[in-house]
Each structure stands twice: as C-alpha cells, then as structure tokens.
Amino acid sequence: MSRALANRLTPYMFMAPAVVIMTMALLYPLMYMVWGSFRDWNPSQTIGEAEFVGLKNYITLWNDPNFHESLGVTLRFAFFVVGFEMLIGVGLALLLDRNIRGMSVLRTLFILPMMIAPVVVGLMWRYMYHPTVGTFNRFLDDVGLPKVDWLGQHALGSIIIADIWQWTPFIFILSLAALQSLPRSALEAARIDGATAWQQIIHIKLPLMMPVLIVTCLLRLIDAFKVLEVILVMTEGGPGLSTEILALRISRTATEFRELGVAAAMSNYLLVLLLAFTVAMFAFTSLQEKRAARIRAAVEEDE
Amino acid sequence: MSTKYEKQNPAFYVLIAILVFMSIGPVLLMFMNSFKLDVDIISGTSGLLFLPTIQNYEKALCDVLWYEPDHVDFCSLKFGGAFINSLFIALISTFLTLVIGCMAAYALVRFRFMGRDTASLTTLMVRMVPPAVLLVPVFGLWNNEFCLDKEGLVGGFIRDTFGGRGDVCLAGTHSGIILIYVAMNLPFVIWILQSFIVQVPRSLEEAARVDGAGPFQVFFKVVLPLIKPGLAAAAIFTFRIAWNEYLLASALSDRNTKTVPILIVNNMSEFNVEWGVIMATGMLLAIPPIIFTLFASRQIITGMTAGAVKG
C-alpha cells in the first residue's frame, strides 16, 4: 500500500469504530422504529412478522385522550421546570458573581445534586413528601400548619420542585461561567458612564450572555423530556394520569401493554417535537449572537 | 493567591448558607436515615438523636457479606450482585466510549475527508435523542434481530458452552447494555473532546511526524496525554450516565444482569417500603458519583461549560 493511500485512509480508520457503533445502536434503531410504527408489532415478533397497518397507530394516538393528557403533562412539566430553573439559576449567578473566598468549594457543593442518580433523587424526595413520616409534613405539623398532600393532588408541582432542586445548579454554573468571561472593559465602561447595577444587567450582561443562555435553555429543555426515573419512583405516573409524562407512557406501552407499534408512533411524535424545539432554538441563537457581537463592537468603539 | 476578596454584606453570607443547606440537605438527610432503624425513621423522634446502626447496610449487602448478620433471616435483596453488574457495565462502557469517541473527535478536528460534515452533523443531531425514544427499537432489535441462530456455528457454540435452549440474543447480556450505553454517550463525548483537541498545537504533532511516527503513534503518544483534562471530564459524564441509567437497563437486562437502579425501583414499588434499607441502597448508589464530584469538580465544570458553550 502506498504511503499516499495510507494517509488518505487514516481519517476513516479513526472514524470507523464510532460510525459502526452509532449506526448499529442509534441510526439503525431509529429507522427501525419509524418502520415499526406502521405495523401492529409486539415484542415477540421480528418486524417482518408484524402486520403492516399503515397510519393506524398514529391515528389511534391522535384520537386517544390519554395520549393528549400525557402530552399536556409533558409540556407543562418542561415549561415550568425550565422556566423556574432559568429564572433562579441566572438570578443566583448575577447575585453571586463576586470574588468570594471558597467559591470553588461552594460550586462543588452545588453540583452535587446533579451527579446523583435520578432513581435516588426520586426516592429521597418520595421520603420527604411522605404524608406522615415525610420531612415536609412533619415540619408543617411542628409549626402548626395543615399538612399538604404532596404526591396526591399536587403531584406534578412536587415533582417540578424536585427537578428544580436537582438541575438549577446546572444553569447557575453555566451562567456564572458566561458572566465571568464577559469583557471586563464593557462593564467598566458602563460603570464609568454611571449605569446602575440594574441597568448594567439589563443592557450589557444579559444580552452578552444570551447566546450561552439559549444553549443552556435548550439543553435543559431536551433533558426535561428525558426525565422519567424521578417520576417513576415518586408517583409511578399517578394519581390518575396527572404525572404520566410521555416518556413514561412510551415505556408502559412498550413493556407493559406490549404494543411496540403504538409506542414507536408515540416516540416519533416526541422526536418531531424535540426536533422542532431544537431548530427554533438554533435560529434564535444565531440572532442573539449577532446582537451580542454588536454590543461588543459598540463597547470597543467607545474606548 | 493574590486575588483580593471583596468584603460582603452579612445578608449575602446568609443567602449562601441557605443555598448550601438546600443543596446538600436532602443528601445528608438520606445519609442519616440510612443509619437509622425503621422504627426511628417512622416515629420521627428528633432528627439528630439516634443510635446509628449499620443493620440497613448489612441487609442490603447480605449476598456479598462474608458473615451472616443475625437480624437477617432471609437474604431477599441481592444488592451485591447488582452492584457488581453496575460497576462492570459502567466501567467497560466508559472505557470504550472514551477510546472510540476520542479517535472520532480527532479525525473530525484534524482531517478533511469525504463525509466529514455529514458525520459531524449526525453526531450533533443524535445527541438529543432521549432514552425513552431508543427504548422501543432497542427492545425489539436486541430481543429479536441481534441474535445468533442456534443452528449456526457461533450461536450453537455459545449455547452449548453457556447453556440455554433458544437463539443467543443481545438482550439480557452485559454486552447488550454496554453497546447501547456506548452509542448513547458517544455523541456527547465526541462533541466535548473536539473542543479540547482543537487546542493541541499542530506543531507538536508535525514534529512527531518528522521524527517518523505514524498517525496512530502521534494520536496515542502526543495528543492523548495533552487532552487529559478533557478525557477526565468526558469520563465522569459517561460514567455518571451509565451508572445512573434505569430505563434501558430495565428493558434489556434479565435476572442476572440487572443493575442497582432497577433493584431500587423494584423495591420502591412494593407495598411495604423498608425505608432504612432503601436509603442504604440509595446511599451506596450515590457514593461513587459523590466521590467523583468531590475530587474532580473542576473537570466536571470544565466539561459542562465546554459541552454547553460550544454546543
């Protein structure tokens, strides 16, 4: 083999293992799923043995009020979780962006919740929400307030609180990193011009952080659609269907009801939804990047 | 260090204290409860005054203990075996993901070749696929299609050697779970390692080339040592996901290959919850990630920012 040919082949040799694995365990399964969603398919059949039913699975889902219910739960969950986490996380970052002793220790303590298994987070909170032995109701009892039915009537809210506990630090850390990499000159210039702390945040810090914030928001949004274990452990989707998010419904349909075709169609709906979010967010990012670049340029001109 | 610390308002420190308490409070609560008897957890007689006991841990680990604790009559919770499965699956899949991901990231950064843009874009896209979406096809494929025919040479050999009557399928094996974890983590690892490899000076690689090193030698001897921080960050994230994952593991494992998260969920859904034992198993599952966090928080933060800012 000539040297030139060997050199041409090198990149393919480096790529090959990754391409093989990702094709075998991601791309092929995804195509397989699309294919399976048109079939009346159960787990004991290969896809070839399953009967072709066209769009039946999609139509069944479209007319199924329970599916709409869990779609609604999923969207509500994602919306509130991401909204609150962004507000609290960015707010804390703006507040704590100072030179203080022990900041690295603090950051370590803050990222701890993120590293713990969702299953464990679920059981921790299920204990704290327990109607009689749980921490919260005991506390309410001690101060003489009425107990709250955390995982009953308010289950979705309680789950949202647990997720906020676990993932706000993610946004906090990323916003803090973004804040600390802002051009010092821009902030200095604004201070000399007599801008108040609030004006600095609104007109300089936030617009310059925006590209990072949008990506952070997107990552959290995608993750919010992946949450499953916490809910499974805390409420198992109940009471009723009030916390049965789409991911949980997919796994139920596939493993409990053994309707792989319907579950595949449901997964496709979810995938399209995520794709739409991603595209929208990327479009928005490029817009905000241009704005941030304009602000940077304006500041540099000032000097 | 020469950085000057500004003096802060006392209210500021109060805020920080509250945040720290909120952040690690639940973990500490679980830690304490894992040393309490169920009677103490349920009666709730004062949070801090109790006689610590390791009974819960003994009960959880009963199948790997070298002695027989007298309060355990029947070892129903096979935690030890699941723990070993978890460890095996997480370590192997982390190692494979790193090697394969690193090579791919290197090719994407350093070479121009046909199909490069497609590969890069696909990697970016599959990063958002949630495990729940993978569940259905992987469940179907691993159970029915990725099988070795029992009449065939290899399948027959495996069946005769390890027992079993039907075809040999990926479902229910360690390899089946490892394969899906490697695939799931690859996009993320390729993505963050790219941002580290870009920073390796080209001149170093060229110098090695001039000295007669082949492309693989350059990669393993020059590039890999220089991106150690990136590798550490990637390793922690991959390990965390493989260690914590529940959904795919529960669909793909059988009695002998199940991991700790499955064990915890199975015990939670039983009618009578033994809080003490559950908390102890939870704590055992949480310990490796907690240790990682304490020792490598700098790498974790670097990895998080590289993953997000470059995304």
From TrEMBL, chain A:
All copies of the ABC transmembrane type-1 domain together span: 71-281
Topology of the protein relative to the lipid bilayer: Multi-pass membrane protein
Q: What is one Gene Ontology biological process annotated in the Swiss-Prot or TrEMBL record?
A: transmembrane transport
| PROSITE patterns, per the entry | ABC_TM1
Subcellular location as annotated: Cell membrane
Which Pfam families is this protein grouped with? Answer: BPD_transp_1
**Record key words, sorted:** Cell membrane, Membrane, Sugar transport, Transmembrane, Transmembrane helix, Transport
Kindly give the Gene3D superfamilies that the UniProt entry links to this protein.
Answer: MetI-like
Q: Which InterPro entries match?
A: MetI-like (IPR000515), MetI-like_sf (IPR035906)
Instruction: Please list every transmembrane segment annotated in the UniProt record, as residue ranges.
Output: 12-35, 77-96, 108-128, 164-182, 202-222, 269-287
Example of a GO cellular component annotation carried by this entry: plasma membrane
The entry assigns this protein to a family as follows: Belongs to the binding-protein-dependent transport system permease family.
State the name under which the record lists this protein: ABC-type sugar transport system, permease component
UniProtKB/TrEMBL annotation, chain B:
- Name where it mostly resides: membrane
GO term, biological process aspect, one? transmembrane transport
Keywords attached to this entry: Cell membrane, Membrane, Sugar transport, Transmembrane, Transmembrane helix, Transport
Q: Where are the transmembrane segments?
A: 12-32, 87-109, 121-142, 178-198, 218-243, 275-296
Q: Which Pfam families match?
A: BPD_transp_1
Q: Where, per UniProt, does this protein localize?
A: Cell membrane
Q: Name one GO cellular component term.
A: plasma membrane
Look up keyword Cell membrane and say if it applies. yes
Alphabetized InterPro entries for the sequence: BP-dep_ABC_trans_perm, MetI-like, MetI-like_sf
Give the record's membrane topology: Multi-pass membrane protein
| Record-annotated ABC transmembrane type-1 domain positions | 83-296
Family from the record:
Belongs to the binding-protein-dependent transport system permease family.
Name of the protein this chain belongs to: ABC-type sugar transport system, permease component
